[in-house]
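Structure ticket #2291
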Amino acid sequence: MFSLYPTHLTPADFTFKIWLMVGFSMMFVSWLMYRETGGQQRNPRMIMKVKKIDYLLILNQLFCGMSMVMKLNEYHIVSVFFSVLCLITLLIINQRLEIHKLTSNSFTKYFIRLSFGLYTGWLLCVFAFNFVTIFVKNGVIESELEQYIVDLGVICLTFAFAMYYSVIKLLPTVSMSFSWGLFGILYQNWQQPAYDNYPILVPLIVLFAVGLLASGYIFYRCNIKRVPGKVMEPRNSTSIP
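Resolution: structure written out below.
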């Protein structure tokens, strides 16, 4: 579907395999939450977190599926609309989980941060190339220069938000998954560029390098925060154990 309306941000096919990792990690986290909210090992703090999420995760998956269905049927504007709803519900879920506080050494916390971080970063990248595809399909932009400016502007803005969100929420997986998307876009532009007159390789390389550096820096900050968390975390903490 993406090959029908190529842009500077069209990623290589292998890039989409990250959905497998996101899907399996989200299923595993759902099982962890289910395990700690039922049976003999019921965790009151986990129950409180799940209640805060309420039905948002179900809505999130509905919006994600609808975005894919609309994309396959070439309703690109509707697809982007559902992508935005999917992203908004995910950001609300992250906020209600207080995901920036889940940095202590805990198996459950680790996978919550891993899966939701991967999902968030990838959705931001998906939004970028979904959005610019609208312009190509509807013939809004006629010249290659205008398309180059739009594509570059969209990827820079979404990248900036992804890095900002990754830093304030201490989620290196957000920047890592977004960087994976950048790598796919970079590879596609290296092998089969959509445009010859205005190559976008140099800006993509810069963004990819910054994304990797940001991921390493945020991961370092998380490790620093985990060390005292193991000893000093209060028992009456409202974070997920």
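Closing remark: Helices lie at 18-36, 44-53, 56-72, 76-97, 107-137, 144-168, 172-191, 201-232.
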